[in-house]
Write a structure and sequence with these properties.
The protein is mostly helical and 259 residues long. It is built from 12 helices and 2 strands. Strands 1-2 form a two-stranded antiparallel sheet.
């Protein structure tokens, strides 16, 4: 009988898993310092821009509550899918930086993302639908599933895995590390959420003139920027966790990711 199709992936899980949080955060800071302009561009395109659309639909008073809920859910899922491209960009950039053998151009990174686009989209859809369903039923299984599959997007773009293989690969890498991952991501979310709340409190209901029309400064401008930065921070940390925890037998794939 043939060996199970996922056996090679599952066997790459480290024998004594751990999560070195300080090293993960150093990697995340290193990415921000080394690629500030690329990071800003990716954040605006994949994180901040979708937030503008979500806000516009959410605040439209002409829609019924059912229509608002349906469209808002679709746009939120779409925003999450676009966010997966940001995570993919961060993972590819960090993987190349770790290799240290050459610095690939931004064009090569975006080319890989475009080529892997269908797999990225399918992986993100499976992730968000499954996690959302599990969270609605019982919160804890949803959190555990989210932690187990946290690294599925980096696995797709860096290791060229199919969506299903990437989910299994992520579950294998995160085995024994899931609660530390939950704690780290929870801390990032709390800090980012506090910044967003502080921005809302400081700005309040102030308006600003945009193309001759008064627009809410926080809802239309500041919130999408802060929310984009919040999602960007999460994406960078996910990429750093993947590069830090990927087993040593995959180091060649990381250092020669564009070969």
């Amino acid at each position: 009988m043939d060996a199970p199709i996922f056996a090679p992936i599952i066997r790459t899980a480290p024998p004594s898993p751990s999560l070195d949080v300080p090293r993960v955060m150093r990697r995340a800071r290193g990415l921000v310092r080394a690629h500030p302009f690329s990071l800003l561009a990716a954040t605006l395109v994949f994180n901040a821009a979708p937030e503008v659309a979500v806000n516009a639909i959410h605040l439209d008073p002409s829609l019924s509550w059912m229509a608002t809920l349906g469209v808002f859910s679709l746009t939120t899922i779409g925003s999450s899918v676009l966010g997966s491209f940001f995570v993919g960009w961060a993972a590819l950039t960090l993987a190349d930086d770790q290799g240290g053998r050459r610095n690939v151009s931004g064009f090569e990174v975006w080319k890989r993302l475009v080529v892997m686009g269908p797999s990225l989209i399918l992986t993100a859809l499976i992730f968000w639908l499954a996690v959302s369903f599990a969270t609605v039923l019982i919160v804890v299984p949803g959190v555990i599933l989210a932690a187990a599959w946290t690294l599925c997007v980096p696995a797709v773009v860096v290791e060229r895995l199919s969506p299903l293989h990437a989910l299994v690969r992520s579950a294998a890498i995160t085995r024994g590390r899931r609660w530390p991952i939950v704690g780290l991501m929870g801390a990032v979310i709390l800090v980012s959420g506090a910044i967003i709340w502080l921005g809302q409190e400081l700005v309040g209901a102030r308006t600003v003139l945009v193309f001759g029309t008064r627009a809410p400064l926080y809802a239309d401008i500041l919130h999408p920027i802060l929310a984009g930065a919040y999602l960007g921070m999460i994406g960078v940390v996910i990429a750093a966790i993947f590069v830090e925890t990927a087993p040593s037998d995959r180091s060649a794939a990381l250092s020669e990711v564009f070969s």
